[in-house]
Amino acid sequence: MKKFIVVTGGVLSGVGKGIFCASLARLLKECGVKVNVLKIDPYLNVDAGTMNPNQHGEVFVTEDGYEADLDLGHYERFLGEDMSRRNNITAGQIYSTIVKRERDGGYLGSTVQIVPHVTDEIKHRIESLEGEVNVIEIGGTVGDIESEVFLESVRQLALEKPFGDFMFIHVTYVPYLKTSNEFKTKPTQQSVQLLRRAGLNPDMIVVRTETPVNPETIKKVALFGGVPQDMVINLPDVPNVYSIVELLKNLDVHRKVARKLNLIIDDTKFSWDYPKEFKQYRIALIAKYLGTDDAYKSIIESIFLSGCIKPTVIDAQNLESMNYEQVCDVLSRFDGLIVPGGFGKRGIEGKIKAIQYAREHGKPILGICLGMQLMVVEFARNVMGYRQANSTEFDPDTPYPVITLMEEQKKILQLGGTMRLGAQPMRIFSGTKLWQIYGGIEETTERHRHRYEVNYDQFPELFKMPGEKGYKLTISAKSNFIEAIELEDHPFFIGIQYHPELKTKVGRPHPLFKAFVDTLSRLT
To answer: Which CATH number is associated with domain 283-523?
Structure first.
């Protein structure tokens, strides 16, 4: 018998539904429940692949090559399990399916309508979830026009299922008004009213606040929200989001959910191991997306889960406007650098200056995807003397195209879902630092998201194999492409084409980030 927990959001977006869903799912898992999760995104994009990180946060890539909303990253890290394309629904997917089916004659002449055809497709996908308890997060905010069809779908599904199989949780925000020294519940009341107009009544209301609320506020939310007071859960801001699992347990949320859904749970073996103490190493993230803190979410969390304070985001465009000496002065204040992936020309020269500083001054640096590609560009320019070396992504006419479009990408015109995506096999060469970091294994898979590659065929003189002599970039991993490079006589100069941050889990940070932090420990 499948059970469903539907989580909606109110008052404003970004209120923390994803973290709450991930925390609740982990808590139930710790109580012996087989849990699955689903993120519903009401936008008309088919997936998140073409969305700007400045507006929407990072694109999270699953093992099966699906480009998803960053909430799937929360699910993976908290649950310790890999997600797939089945864990995400977008309105674009639903409508594309409906239109194609209609064009193929699948409706046998019927007038195709939102109800029942669109709602039936949504219900079918929800029912295909395989968890004993399925936590469903509906993105956006109640009242958004694009989410109405999803609310209608879960309303219908709840009526079709036996009583006790569905639970509705509304996550809302209660602001604190300093001038009157009180928490204001009116926005939450109005949000619950909008939910009711959609035919849904919350069984639990999760109140997000900056600081803990007083009992009077809880009582007021319960009264106007139509739920018992013990079903109003206050979640104030916390410095460590991974503590929310314990917080929910201490508030008996698992028992309240179990009571509503008639679940048998066992919390006697509850064990939630997450970092609580953090090394104060200063890490600079040389970034090009600054519109939201979520643009590099998985990298930041990978450092945090490796036991270090979160990195400082540095605008690569600002470094680009500085001379080299000024860049050196800024970056000398940090213990290590990370150059992440991305697309577009903004800040590229600033990233290259940062890489040059790290290479010449022995500063630990990790280059990811575009970061690795720019390591190759910097080496070609400043060591090999190819002053105009570049990637053809940024200079199609460069005389030294050390980074170029992958051959199979040259024939592709459609942008969405066409990059080299998901888990891809690679070989790690023994004796390299990367090989040591991976514990001596020589075959593994890592997740990718890129169109460009190192142009080894045209510029082999930049590289060497492990054990060969000379000051060149050592190839430490390879598939059909160069997957990783490093410098032998450097504390930590490693570039990888893949995205290790996507495989970090709570208690199991990716070994590259753990090794990076450990290097800082040895040097400081």
So the answer is: 3.40.50.880
